[in-house]
Protein 1
Amino acid sequence: NVIAQATLLKYDGRMPHRIIQDAMMRLFGLKISPATILDLTRRAADAVQSEYDAILKKIRGAPILYVDETSIHVQGERHWIWTFSTPSESFFVIRKSRGMKVLTEVLTRRFKGIIVCDGWKPYARFTNRIQRCWAHLLRESKELSGKFAEAVPLHNALKELYDSLTKALESDPPPEVRRYLCYLAREALRNWIRKEYSAEKVRKFIGKINNGFDYWFTFIINPGVEPTNNRAERALRPHVVLRKILGTLRNDKGTSIHERIMTTLATWGQRGLNSLQMLTEKLAS
């Protein structure tokens, strides 16, 4: 119970060690040191190792996977925390690389699913089964429309295209309708790409759209694929909060603990399971 409570206070409650010390004394009359708290979380991470491995296996076999990454510091050096998410699992690793080798390590070359992601180049080098994130696209076009008049109709057209497609897909149309919608969408987007733009930033934005042209409409043809990467971004938010609280992970041991605990807690949460009960059972088994 002590191990589970200390672990949840840190990773679910997002408390620094000093606050955990105070809470354990106040709630249970236990006087423990920061080093002890670290050791308790290590024991919890060891207890969920089999769960962590099982989640990795699920991720590698997922037909649709939402992937994203954000920076995190280990011993003061920049690393990247990667999330690989489905509706029922979230898997996290922390690596020094932001490149394709992390995708290959985690997913292996046997991965056959569709990846929903932003426009970071390693994804397209890893697979051609991609859905690019429309939320990123529309945020960037909206920002440009606030600076350049010629980007206003472009942003409005992209938003209208996105809204019309998501509305049309609400009824889950048959494959032939989906193929026709995809044809119309590609033609509409191609027309806007072909226009002349004077502002360099707008031209660069058009270049981004064009470079990922084949990846904007995967969600039309493939039922179940979401057009945005919001699922992966939501999975990373607790880590962003922890990053602000912790500042930097101290060593490889802390990194490994973070990966295993955050993976299992996130997955249990997605599955509607009680984290305290699940963790206590793992520790007792």
Note: The mean pLDDT is 94.
Protein 2
Amino acid sequence: IVDGFFIGRSVGDVGLAAVNIAYPLSALLQAAGTGIGMGAAVCISVCRGRGDTRGERGHLGGAFLLLAAAGVLLAVSLFSFGTPALAALGARGEVLEQAIVYLRVILLGIPFQLAATALAPLIRNYDGALAAMGAMIAGFVTNIVLDALFVSVFGWGMAGAAGATVIGQIVTAVPCAFYLWRVTFRIGSGPVRPAGHMCGSILRTAVSPFGLAMSPLFVIMLLNKAASVYGGESSVAAYAVISYATAVVMLLLQGVGDGSQPQMSLYFGMDRPERTKAVRNLAYAFAAVTAVANIVALCILRAAIPVFFGASGEAAAMAAKAMPVFTIGFIPIAFCRVTTAYFYATQHNRPAYVMVYGEAVVLPRMIGMDGVWISLPVAQILLMLIGCGLLWRSCRNRVKDSGKVSNETVCDTPAL
């Protein structure tokens, strides 16, 4: 988003479109790190709740091993197939050239991007919420300052914006790594050494947070392609502005779910379902308030936001008109983000998979630009209904397993 702001003002619509098209490949790195980090965090927190120090250390070692393997795999894949992938995502001509420049620099920072996104959720599960927040803010501020310097002052364009992003990730990764290094001395004796079955349990849980990060990007790819077909470069630039604005809201709502995960996993490991339910319902309430506040804000600022990102007159008018349509989905996505976090935090992996990957599956066929704009809110409403059904089914299964109905069952479905 920061890169899009400075590139839009420096390069214009071509730069906006290039960053938006290249971003899904860049975000693949962050999604991999988030998936491994969150998957390990859930397993570690459950082990802490059970008092299983050996399992806790084993899962921590498994996270390190999986991060190293992911780094090698992603480096080989993206350096080999990055350019064809950009073309497949809809980049053409000058947009493709600019996107290639951006992606090549981003790929130089693969180890740091994986570490920054993986270590933050891990240290949150070791009472490091403030440390994680501080590290993320430090990286974000660094990114802003260096973007202003590299792009606006030095005129380095796409390469400068990508370089600022990589350095920002380094600034986030270093304090997180130091915090985690200190933690390893507090969790009992013995080496932090992975076991095969522990890596497997991390990966089974990691599929959900990985998909949670990638599913919106898959939707962005589909909508970028459709906008390019039905409206051309101006439509792609308009959708870039909308995706930047709505991405802030999506990340806030995902943050509510991620923030509730350590407590839900800990209470799940302690077999305290009433506390798990209380944390989850608090997250529902907080996510709903966040969604409503952002609906109001984006509707009021819908004309100013495209200008802020440097969109041209045609693209700005198109984005301002379509912005309120996208806000329709904020309430459903608030419910879905927390529900998904609840499922994977309590190791209910199958319903979590449905919630994560369902958005792309239920996305309706798009006809014309109006169809492109309305398709995502419709998919989010459908996914919310699916989530309600999964919660109800989870409740019935728990009651059946326990043999009695309890007023404190963790599966009570909240009023919408």
Note: The chain has 15 helices and no strands.
Protein 3
Amino acid sequence: HGAMTSRRAGRVMGMALAALLVPALLVLGVLLFLSPGTPKPFLDDQGRTLAGSISEKVFVKINGIDQGMFIQGRSARNPVLLYLHGGVPDHFLTDRYPTGLEDIFTVVWWEQRGSGLSFDPDMPPDTLNPEQLVSDTLALTDHLRARFGQHKIYLMGRSGGTFFGIQAAARAPERYHAYIAVAQMSNQLESERLAHSYMLQRYKDEGHHKMAQRLEQAPVGNTVPLPDAYLRVRDVAMHDLGVGTTRDMHSVFTDLFLASLRHREYTLSEKINLWRGKLFSGSRLWNTQLSTDLTHQVTRLDIPVYFLHGVHDYTVSYPLAKAYFDLLEAPVKGFYTFKQSAHTPFFEEPDKVREILRADVLTGRNGLADPQ
């Protein structure tokens, strides 16, 4: 009787393991199928690779570290645009939000030291600092200038990328045609206080007492690092209220994490590293950004400067960016307000962004800028 009971228990356990293993293998199979890891080519009307186009994923040794990037453009003869991402690389979002930037530029979607394609768990943590990222930006700039035979390129930063981008542009203006800031950081600690106040009031007005209570119990003060309780609710609340990455993006899990898993230009391991890198690099860079007031650090650029900002952006404050723009000295300046955008106008209002790039940025003018 004991032997029969033991065999029966073994069968039950085996069936239970199989019930768990089969779905897990199916999920793994789907993820692998969705992860060939190769960029899509540009095609002509006959479905052939477009002559003169470029679409590649490459790794370049920058200041001793292999760093990855996507380089895409309908013509490799177009001007080069080096793009600096924020807290997490966002090239995967072009699946849902095509930008059309590759119609105008050869776009370099660089995934910076410690992030995404450039994540290395063995990288010394102390090498992940603002000075190093500025140095990496300038080194990659020189590589791109040499590779594409262009004396100058264009530099675009978004969110956290603007923190390093504006410093790189100030340090080496001779390497850039212009600096383009999307959601330019300035005084980020003050930006967080403004965001907290706005989100708390919104939740109170909408009768969402649970979220209001969470924010009330996690005030943003004058010190860095920010309270863990606030950081746990921050991104959830911003996306829930439509003031985060985009106005129509309401879930970090669904709209960011799951979207990255569906992106076919990453391998599965690269998708995992995208979020490992977010955890690895996030706080190391974030606290420095919070404790630095760029309005005192960079007050002049010797190249044309363009700020693009969504009025619904509370990840990086719109009014603070406007105030920074007003005091910044530059030979040509343009501030562009996007009334239908939150944190990423080139995802949310791409047609308007392309019009500005063609009419103003490529010509060194500011005719489409907001009236001053």
Note: DSSP finds twelve helices and eight strands in the chain.
